[in-house]
Amino acid sequence: YPTWKRTLTRRAREAQMKRFCKAQAIQRRLEEIEVTFRELEQQGIKLEKLLRDEDGTPADQKTQWMNQLLYLVQKKNSLMSEESDLMITVQELKLEEQQWQLDQKLRCYMNREESLKTPEDRVAEREILMQLLDVVNKRNVLIHIQEEKRLSEL
């Protein structure tokens, strides 16, 4: 087994583990965001009740509650934006994994001698290549979406 093949295999495993760890970190963060959403919702409900039952409450207290409510809305919007970014990253990781798998299949077909390939092999090779191009295009769309989002936030 040549050294270069062992190196490629090791690097592929490392890349796969890196994607897996990143996916786990994203999942943890999404769970944290969900918990924070619930907490913000509860705080918002309390503030809304205070504002509705404002009989005899000083104006500066009402203003303070309104400011707190606006802060909660701003924080929730920020978390929603982060959640959206994470979901795009999850899709990107899935497509990256799919691309890697298709690339491995395609390499198997391409490493065969042309004279030994059956017509079915050639068809399968073309199909895998088309699937690979589709995945690359989908990743490109995700990158474009992220870039548009980043530019709109500026």
Automatic annotation (TrEMBL):
Pfam families reported for this sequence: bMERB_dom
Superkingdom of the source species: Eukaryota
Presence of keyword Coiled coil: yes
Chain ranges of the BMERB domain: 13-154
UniProt GO MF annotations: monooxygenase activity
Keywords (A to Z) from UniProt: Coiled coil, Membrane, Monooxygenase, Oxidoreductase
Database matches in PROSITE patterns: BMERB
Localization per record: Membrane
Coiled-coil ranges per UniProt: 23-50
InterPro entries xrefs: bMERB_dom, F-actin_Monoox_Mical
Main location: membrane
Name this protein carries in UniProt: MICA1 monooxygenase
